[in-house]
Amino acid sequence: MKRPSARSWRGDGTESFRVHKIVAGDLSEAWRKVSATLGRDAVVLRTSEIRQGGFLGLRSRGVIEIQAVRWDELPADLKQKYARGGKGEPKPKVAEAPRADRDGNGAGLPSQEREAVTRQMAEVHRQFDEVKDLVAGVTRLVRAGAVANYPEELRGVYLYLLENQVADDLSRDLVEGLVREMTGPELRSPQVVRARLLAAVERRLLTAGGIRLSPGKARVVALVGPTGVGKTTTLAKLAAHFKYQEHAAVSLASIDTYRIGAAEQLQNYAQILDIPLRVCLTAKDLGEAIASHRGDGVVMIDTPGCSPRDGIKMRELKSFLDAVKPDEIHLVLGTTAQADHLFTVLDAYASFGIDRVILTKLDECTRFGLILTVLARTQRSLSYITDGQCVPKDIQEGNPSRLARLVLGEAPL
Fold first, then answer.
1. Is the C-alpha dihedral spanning 76, 77, 78, 83 positive or negative?
2. Residue 138: pLDDT band by 50, 70, 90 thresholds?
3. Where are the domains of the chain?
4. pTM for the structure as a whole
5. Fewest CB within 10 angstroms: 27, 105, 328, 367, which?
6. How far apart are CA 108 and CA 102, in angstroms?
7. Which is the CATH superfamily of the domain at 219-407?
């Protein structure tokens, strides 16, 4: 195990003790390292999150840093301080809680039982941590084997892509493409490697720009997707854009009658933007709402969030859209979800005839490689990204150059 760094610290001007600095990927791992290295009675002086690492000048990562001292290395005066209730003191025993038969609600447990439960929970957490460590170890071995045949200069590129949620097969394709096209001297230049990788990622990002209106004919656009991805807010941003930036006629239609307050939320936006809204209970209502729009411009349809596992709601939504045949159907996906969940959503909505994808909540996303993974999986172009709750400003068309730099940590959001 890598030994923690240490420095001397003079506490009272006469005695000194060693402060050990321990860095780990998360807090639980940091505590384990402190306990293993300095003992269970170590005194923690400071806990903080710092930025560390990065590859080829790309994104650094957040790690936990703990500064701690061995109990037996503390000067006597500090031991007295912690013994009176400082950070290093073991917690005193908790007074016995009221017994169940004392207050009649069963909430209390004798201290011995509480201690037994605490020990059991600690053992469960310990075993869970062991499993996580085992899985992480196996993953490291697999990845080490995968990069063994790559030039040394590109092994870090592959691992960096994986760490940022670029799918394994896609990461391999990118690295193997660099192997084929780069010479030895080029591989030895981090700047050249970074530039070639950036260009390769940019080529993989399918973007098609935003919604384009046609003179003399209204464009009918539906937004679909799972619950909680921000469809209604995104629709309001687009409606505001078309009204105030493109000076187009805009109408809204909502078939989201499941979620409490959904119609009211969109109604508030419609009133603020001064545009018509119709809430539709049937496919016939939706058809009439579209027909009532006069002239060109855009009709935007807000739909209920559907879980990919809710077959009934999915079929009902599809029947609505099949009846009115929108010109465009945009699938809205939140980038805070796990990749496996997004793949499930993509598969569930495949039969809807998705034209383009909107990615939301980039302001809450920590691994932007997911953008590349999702677009490669769906084989659909990106229309918009959103990065905040402000209507209408926190939305923009997908730009492949900026997105590539975002994926590789070279551009701020």
1. positive
2. very low
3. 5-83, 130-204, 219-407
4. 0.65
5. 105
6. 9
7. P-loop containing nucleotide triphosphate hydrolases (3.40.50.300)
